[in-house]
Design a protein that fits this description.
Blueprint: E1 4-10, H1 23-38, E2 47-51, H2 65-76, E3 84-90
Length: 93
């Protein structure tokens, strides 16, 4: 059975002069869409959600350079023909 993997990143840039208001919400909405309408599993081995929400500070789910590179590596590793991978980024380009 083909596997579906998703990496969803939402960065609001809290407490900076460039703060955004909806990027974390975007990533949650994309997660809900993938699970509800596209058959993705929300389990941590199939979907990773990274945000700069305060509760993620210092964790592997905080979207800082090293964590994001590790997540990109997870997304592209171990895939086989027929698998699907999905990447969503919401934040400053």
């Amino acid at each position: 059975m083909p596997r579906r993997k998703a990496l969803l990143i939402g960065i609001n840039y809290y407490n900076t002069q460039h703060e955004l208001a909806g990027c974390i919400n975007d990533s949650h909405n994309v997660r809900d869409y993938l699970v509800r309408d596209r058959g993705f599993s929300p389990s941590p081995q199939d979907m990773v959600l990274m945000t700069d929400a305060p509760e993620n500070r210092g964790s592997p789910f905080e979207p800082v350079g090293a964590n994001m590179m590790a997540a990109f590596q997870w997304l592209v590793t171990g895939n086989r023909p027929g698998d699907s991978v999905f990447l969503s980024y919401s934040g400053h380009g």
